[in-house]
Each structure stands twice: as C-alpha cells, then as structure tokens.
Design goal:
alpha+beta; 3 helices; globular
Length: 74
C-alpha cells in the first residue's frame, strides 16, 4: 500500500513547476486546484498535476523530492 506521493504541478505548458510530497494525493491536488493554501502554488496558479510517483515510505518520497529540486530546469 502506498503511504506517500511525490508530485509535480504546473500552471501551463513550459510554465512554473512545483514539486511536493503528500500522504493524500487526491486531497492535495484538490487543495491546489481550489487555491485553499496560501503561498507559492496559489500565487502562481499551479493547478495542473503533470507527474506523480508512489512510495511506500515518506522518507523515500522526501529524498526523491530533494533530488529533483536540484535538477536543472532543462
């Protein structure tokens, strides 16, 4: 059973990217789309889910998020 999710959201093709980790992907994507949480994703209108990876452990998902955030944008 999956206990953590790594996800990437954007606002448009070739737009701003946001990488995050959650334990409830459905709830979290809904929060992004409805603009319920103040901050970066609401400010830039990041509502499109473009990528998701399931993980058995939250620590593995967090480590993957950190690795991805160090990648070059290209």
């Amino acid at each position: 059973m999956t206990s953590a999710w790594l996800y990437i959201m954007t606002n448009q093709p070739n737009g701003i990217l946001y990488t995050g980790v959650t334990t409830d992907i459905i709830r979290r994507v809904w929060e992004h789309r409805e603009g319920l949480v103040e901050g970066f994703t609401k400010r830039y209108g990041l509502k499109r889910l473009v990528y998701v990876e399931p993980y058995l452990e939250i620590a593995a998902a967090i480590q993957r998020e950190r690795n991805i955030k160090h990648w070059p944008r290209k």
